């Protein structure tokens, strides 16, 4: 099992940061990069083998809308990898995954949880292509294509990954046996079954949806699965807050691993303490 980190945004909020603007956690790439480094360090110290960069919601378009010039926006996006690498160097053997969130994250209107953006594949390609190259050229160990809600967007991203020939995991946001956009999940997994993708799976979903999705991902692609759900709470896009109760990944992780998940961690609302618990259970199981 490769233990991933947990959510970046909730860990930053727990440290007192207001992430309510459209840039979300990417704002701190500009305003307080040391705090991003501190969260990466907290996850590594908790036992995570992989730090996921603060680039999920980082895009040239998003930064430009916030008054940042293009050259500086490109520098900030690439800096997300450098920040994680500098912390990673304190922990030999650990990895950095450059986060690539969906087009809907840039819109900051909740559409990342719906998909069906109403734009062409060409628009999606023009958005994702330059950002993938910026992140890839910064030298992460792999890309984390994550929280993808729509098979149309997946097709564009997979085509770009094949052209760039860079390793990545590919992770959908889901609702039961379908993508958030409503496509059958097994069909969506098949899209990502290319050589450059090292693992296929799901994130930012209910923990209860993970096991069947992992089984489907392995059956369809023959690849290891990646699984990092949230705590099972629901995001209210109107009030911009999480509601309900949840459970950390340690509760279910070994069932997911038995089904074929190799990369396991957490997403929204999963913090360093949850990853520490997962790591402790993993070590106990290994003994």
UniProtKB/TrEMBL annotation:
Keyword RNA-binding in annotation: no
Gene Ontology biological process terms from the UniProt entry: methionine biosynthetic process; methylation; S-methylmethionine cycle
Transmembrane segments annotated in the record for this chain: none
Domain Hcy-binding: 1-282
Keyword set includes Transferase: yes
Entry binding sites for Zn(2+): 204, 267-268
One MF term in the entry's GO annotations: zinc ion binding
Superkingdom of the organism of origin: Bacteria
Cofactor: Zn(2+)
Keyword vocabulary terms for this entry: Metal-binding, Methyltransferase, Transferase, Zinc
EC number(s) stated in the UniProt entry for this protein: 2.1.1.10
Protein name as catalogued: Homocysteine S-methyltransferase
Organism expressing this protein natively: Kribbella jiaozuonensis
Organism lineage: Bacteria, Bacillati, Actinomycetota, Actinomycetes, Propionibacteriales
